[in-house]
Specification:
The structure holds 2 protein chains of 2 kinds. Chain A is 33% helix and 27% strand. By secondary structure, chain A is of the alpha/beta class. Chain A starts with a strand and ends with a helix. Chain B is an all-alpha fold. Chain B is built from 10 helices and no strands. Classes of the chains: A alpha/beta, B mainly alpha.
Chain lengths: 237, 255
């Protein structure tokens, strides 16, 4: 198998009031080339899971097994651009000197619709444009595995929609595996090949969604899926 | 636009000071020895400029400032970087650094003269002592103030410590480093004039003290004006160099 396997993942934080167990032995399999969406309420450990998989934090127990050599990229909740670099340099931030390919960068800038803004500084861009730069920065290093932490949460409805389309197009083009964290059910239904409910520090339920893109959220299958997800979320609470 | 908004008001400000100075002298309220007239100071200035006395003083003092400032910058940058790259080393030198920060360099002069004589070394050390701390503190502030979320981005792209330092920490600290350099340059000037007044036979500070002993108040004033102007010009030149070097960061406090 050619994906990522997570077994018995544990993580807790020590607070003044005691120990907070965020993940309590979480098992999850991420299929290669698929979009796995982790859905859950605020504070259920979605971001922690992502940070552990991305290697930004160390787990207390369990293991994360990558089945093939991978190049990973992270898209954070906020754009996190380097304020002193222009759009082009920000996009190339993840590349080593020898990996910089002006033609490829130009293509990525086109893909995210920022042509003409190559020399702009982040402060001169709107929030949506900044988040597109962040997405382009992740894509520029041709990752085989992309982790996204509510990347579109701060965007308005229309920008979010176009960014979601963008992401699906990128997936088509690159075949990258994507681990996507969100608390928005609609977003999960729009993007996911598999929706995973995170609750009580474990995966409470998983819903495979085998529908082609673009999807109509009002179709019967998705309305049905939404019902079961809402019910499962309610049961978990 | 720039003429109306900046240059004209500046000229009016300077003109008003000169006019007040002239009027005070012309009214005869003060003795010519206590406050020589602008005209006399001007002609003294021309004479000193023509004889090369002034330019020599400026060059000597400026040379000392640049040398001491350069050494201080290298030291401050090195120690501040060490604090970031090897945080465990910090307690070893931090208390010593903080001790010297609270000792005015002028207070070190007697010891320095005893150890290094009244040659160049004493003056260099005094400038280093005076200009090291503002730079050290602002560089440390710039380095430690780096947004950890940006460092996390670097980490997510597999940046090592050194690479993250040069590509994230250093550029984000640029504004603080520049402010520190600017403050320190001013401190260097003050320190060298002080040091030259106590232990030197050349330089602007010595020139002023010598003029005082010769009762040449006009020369003293020429010296003071020269110090102010040269200080302002070096500050301005540093601004140009830095603006070119630090491109994109427009908000670094330079006018």
């Amino acid at each position: 198998m050619d994906g990522i396997e997570i077994r018995g993942l544990k993580k807790s934080y020590t607070l003044e009031s005691g120990t907070l167990h965020v993940l309590r032995g979480l098992d999850l399999t991420l299929e290669a080339g698929a979009i796995t969406v982790v859905l859950g309420k605020s504070g259920c450990g979605k971001t922690t899971l992502l940070r552990l998989v991305g290697g930004l934090e160390k787990p207390d127990g369990g293991e994360i097994r990558f089945h093939s050599p991978r190049k990973t990229a992270f898209v954070f909740q906020e754009p996190r651009l380097m304020p002193w670099l222009n759009v082009r340099d920000n996009i190339q931030f993840g590349l080593r000197r020898g990996e910089i390919d002006p033609a490829a960068t130009k293509r990525i800038i086109e893909t995210v619709g920022l042509t003409g803004f190559e020399s702009a500084l982040p402060a001169q861009l709107s929030g949506g444009m900044q988040q597109r730069v962040a997405l382009a920065r992740a894509l520029a290093c041709r990752p085989s595995f992309i982790m996204m932490d509510e990347p579109f949460a701060a965007l308005d409805h229309f920008t979010r929609e176009s960014m979601q389309k963008e992401l699906l197009r990128v997936r088509e083009a690159t075949d990258a595996s994507i681990l996507f964290v969100t608390h928005a059910i609609d977003e999960a239904l729009t993007l996911a090949d598999k929706v995973v409910l995170l609750s009580g520090g474990v995966c409470a339920a998983a819903f495979p969604i085998a529908l082609p893109h673009p999807r109509d959220l009002m179709c019967d299958e998705l309305i049905q899926a939404r019902r079961s997800i809402v019910a499962a979320l309610g049961a978990a609470a | 636009m720039k003429l109306r908004k900046r240059i004209l008001p500046a000229l009016i400000g300077v003109g008003a000071v000169l006019l007040a100075w002239y009027l005070v002298c012309a009214s005869g309220v003060v003795n010519d020895y206590v406050l020589p007239s602008p005209g006399r100071v001007w002609s003294t200035f021309l004479k000193m400029a023509a004889s090369g006395e002034l330019i020599k003083g400026v060059l000597v003092s400026l040379g000392r400032v640049l040398k001491g400032f350069g050494i201080a910058f290298a030291l401050a940058f090195l120690l501040a970087s060490l604090r970031i790259l090897a945080p465990a080393s910090e307690p070893y030198y931090e208390y010593i650094v903080q001790f010297f920060r609270n000792v005015p360099p002028i207070a070190m002069i007697p010891l320095l003269i005893l150890w290094c004589g009244i040659g160049e070394t004493t003056k260099t050390v005094i400038i280093v002592l005076a200009s090291f701390f503002p730079m050290y503190l602002s560089i440390v502030k710039g380095f430690t103030g780096c947004d950890p979320r940006l460092l996390e981005v670097a980490r997510s792209f597999d940046y090592g410590r050194g690479r993250a330092f040069f590509r994230v920490v250093l550029p984000s600290a640029m504004a603080d480093i520049l402010v520190g350099m600017r403050t320190s340059l001013g401190y260097s000037w003050r320190a060298i004039i002080g040091a030259e007044m106590v232990a030197a036979s050349t330089g602007l500070g010595h020139m002023i003290l010598f003029a005082q002993q010769m009762s040449r108040t006009d020369k003293v004033i020429v010296g003071i004006l020269t110090i102010g102007i040269v200080g302002r010009v070096t500050d301005w030149l540093l601004g140009i160099v830095i603006r070119r070097f630090a491109g994109g960061t427009a908000q670094n406090g330079w006018d």
